[in-house]
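for the recovery benchmark. tokens below, seq after
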């Protein structure tokens, strides 16, 4: 498979440079731009399958940064959290000369997308939430710190695995339950990209401090938890029916019901056959479904 990301460049942000990958034409030559935001311990490469499908027609530009503390931005310093992400994403759009884009976010990236659209309503033509981003209730103060650490442990579980080579890291991802049925060259590219080196030692390309900063905001900040309720742009929610291990969906039905009640004009789609990861990546039906919805959203919102 060809790499859909034909360009890779740096954008100056607080503390250093954010890496951004681009699929499709340059923003100035495109009919529409999608700003694609990955999840809590992920990288821009998780958008690779969707990017290929979405940009086949040659009129859509997809910009996919590595969030601060992930991928090639793993060495970027704090402060971490939702405010830092919003500032970084604003820098990405400004650098590209993009006034308005469809903002798409996966998993924790959906909360980042919602927060950005709520803070910068003029820059969001529409918001597409992928298995995340829905308003969640406040957590009791007495369990907040314990809950944060439990959520960090869950997010960092695979990232903490030790490995001695890129091939060993690929093998670890090859055995991940999410990809048993849908492994392909895009997933392998994602696994290969998930390697950073510090002082001669290989490790996952994710900063635990960055993960903890994002999760802390979701636990402690009401704005982060409920940013989606402040978004005025058209909304689309896509949901995978399974978590990565085949268990319950990432978004339980009560959250879906509350979202629909509060946003009656939002479009909601379940993507049969997809799990939390393969909603975006791999050989299954998820990437084509997401690309189709993004294309339809572009048509109606821009």
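predicted aa per position
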């Amino acid at each position: 498979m060809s790499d859909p990301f034909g360009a890779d460049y740096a954008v100056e942000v607080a503390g250093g440079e954010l890496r951004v990958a681009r699929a499709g034409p340059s923003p100035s030559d495109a009919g529409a731009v999608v700003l694609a935001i990955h999840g809590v311990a992920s990288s821009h490469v998780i958008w690779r399958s969707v990017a290929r499908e979405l940009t086949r027609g040659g009129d859509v530009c997809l910009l996919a940064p590595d969030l601060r503390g992930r991928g090639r931005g793993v060495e970027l310093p704090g402060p971490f959290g939702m405010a830092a992400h919003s500032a970084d994403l604003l820098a990405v759009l400004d650098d590209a000369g993009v006034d308005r884009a469809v903002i798409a976010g996966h998993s924790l990236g959906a909360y980042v997308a919602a927060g950005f659209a709520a803070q910068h309503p003029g820059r969001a033509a529409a918001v597409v939430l992928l298995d995340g981003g829905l308003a969640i209730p406040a957590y009791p103060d007495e369990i907040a710190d314990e809950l944060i650490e439990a959520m960090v442990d869950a997010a960092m579980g695979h990232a903490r695995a030790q490995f001695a080579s890129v091939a060993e890291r690929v093998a670890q991802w090859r055995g991940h339950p999410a990809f048993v049925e849908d492994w392909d060259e895009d997933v392998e590219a994602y696994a290969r990209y998930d390697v950073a080196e510090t002082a001669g030692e290989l490790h996952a390309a994710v900063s635990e401090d960055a993960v903890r900063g994002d999760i802390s905001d979701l636990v402690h900040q009401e704005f982060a938890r409920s940013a989606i309720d402040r978004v005025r742009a058209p909304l689309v929610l896509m949901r995978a029916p399974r978590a990565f291990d085949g268990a319950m969906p990432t978004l339980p039905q009560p959250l879906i019901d509350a979202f629909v009640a509060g946003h009656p004009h939002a479009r909601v789609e379940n993507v049969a056959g997809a799990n939390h990861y393969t909603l975006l990546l791999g050989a299954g039906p998820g990437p084509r479904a997401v690309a189709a919805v993004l294309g339809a959203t572009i048509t109606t919102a821009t």
